[in-house]
Amino acid sequence: MKRIHLFFVLLLSSVQIGYAQLPPAPFGALPSERQLKWHETEVYGLVHFTPTTFENKEWGYGDADPKIFNPVVFDADKIVAAFKAGGLKGMVLVAKHHDGFALWPTKTTSYNISQSPFRNGKGDMVREMEQACRKAGLKFGVYCSPWDRNNPDYGTFEYVKAYREQLRELYTQYGELFMSWHDGANGGDGYYGGARTARKINRDTYYGWDTTWAITRSLQPMANLFSDIGWDVRWVGNENGFAGETSWATFTPLPAKGESIAFPGNLDHTQNPFGTRGGKNWVPAECDVPLRPGWFWHPEQKGKTKTPEQLFQLYLKSVGRGAALDLGIAPDTRGLIDEEDVKALEGFGRLVNQSFSINLLKTALISSKDTRGKDFPIKNLTDENLQSYWASKDDELSPVIEAKWKVPQTFDLIRIREYIPLGQRLDKVEVEILSGNQWVKVGEATSVGACRIIQLSNPVETTSLRIKFQSPVAVTLSDLGIYKKSQW
């Protein structure tokens, strides 16, 4: 009997050990491959540069003479160099804004760059920007506005066909795109073929988004579709550059009040900063904000460029809340980034790089009694490989990770990244330090997802740290870091 009993004990133990080594089951909506690549991008820039720049306006009416578009010292390499100095990993070029002027020699309209003096009418600014990005290792994407204040056919199906053809040109002539960016601009007054009038459309049906975006999926399967409603990436609901303190990557869009269907430009945006816990799809937020007050360059906005410290705080409230930061960076009439803006970007890049260059956890003894097993070790948290991860046991929904140093460490930033291929799982995080003989809470957060950066109100010093997690399922973390913010 004892031998039989021992056999079953050993059998049960082996089953339990084997079970503990299985990966945690996926939880909720999951990101696609293209969305995972988008999350890695973190910070990119949106470039507005059309005849509107030379008119010193924010929105062109569609009546500008193409001959005013003449950036005589335009240099795509210098623009991209400024992006790279700022730590940006991608560019979304406004290939056509609401004024209808195309920055490439499209066959769909004569209102394009070939009618300007740029490169003696032989230029293609989309091509030059795309090639400069590829050379510097930046991702490239485009925004082609669906609203066109110049096109005589706007408001008819003939324009929709032309718009789709513009997308096909952009999708097939400029290599792989990481984003196809859209907004909710949906008609109004313009210069439609010389007719100064207002044209209204049915926002729910006019563009036929399901058909239009099927073109994106077919021709650019790795391009993330951005709009206020999402599809791949949702607008955060403001142009201030930050997400809600709680911001879920999962999202179920709701239609605007009085409407039955949610479409771009027809959405209840109050939910966008926060997402939807347990939402139907994985649709993380993009936090867009211009570097200056305007999206286009304006000479009177000199001295109003955001400082490196302001940009860093936006970084913490966008990337540090599981979203991405999309900075509006506009060339001036020369075709270059203003020196004031370049310096701000350089300072921002240094501040982020220096602040997160030294992970203090790498010198600590890290442990957790809640570790799932040897296949998901605690060392995966600091190996700088987002494909490896630490996991807790299935029956431990409040795991704790502890860190101890031989000498006191000073820090004020905590960065946590979930292993999001298995979903967004965490509900809450608490950070405690040992002060004397007492554990003291110094920071906390709700949603985590791709990245959560907790900034403490003041730097703290300790030899012992513990982080408590709460989740409805096993916790999976790909990265954990403790840092001291650099001073600007």
What does this structure look like?
This protein has two domains: 33-355, TIM Barrel (Alpha-Beta Barrel), CATH 3.20.20.80; 360-483, Galactose-binding domain-like (Jelly Rolls, Sandwich), CATH 2.60.120.260. The strands form four sheets. An eight-stranded parallel β-barrel has the order 1-2-3-4-7-8-11-12, surrounded by four helices. Strands 13, 14, 15, 16, 17, 18 and 19 form a seven-stranded antiparallel sheet that branches. Strands 5-6 form a two-stranded antiparallel sheet. The radius of gyration is 25 Å and the shape is globular. The chain has 488 residues and is α/β, with parallel strands linked by helices. Helix content is 23%, strand content 24%. The protein has helices at 2-20, 33-41, 51-55, 76-85, 125-136, 157-173, 209-219, 308-318, 339-355, and strands spanning 43-47, 90-96, 139-144, 179-181, 188-190, 197-199, 224-227, 233-235, 250-251, 281-282, 285-290, 324-328, 365-367, 390-391, 400-418, 428-435, 438-445, 452-470, 476-483.
Strand portion? 15-25%
Class of secondary structure makeup? alpha/beta
Query: What order do the helices and strands follow?
Result: HHEHHEHEHEEEHEEEEEHEHEEEEEEE
Second rung of CATH, namely the architecture of the largest domain? Alpha-Beta Barrel
Largest sheet: 8 strands, parallel, barrel
The whole-number mean of residue pLDDT values reads 93
Radius of gyration from the CA trace? 25 Å
The counted number of beta strands is: 19
The oligomerization state is single chain
What is the CATH first-level class name of the largest domain?
Answer: Alpha Beta
Q: Helix content range of the residues, please?
A: 10-25%
Q: Could you name the CATH topology of the largest domain? A: TIM Barrel
Number of helices: 9
CATH superfamily of the largest domain: Glycosidases
Measure the end-to-end span: 73 Å
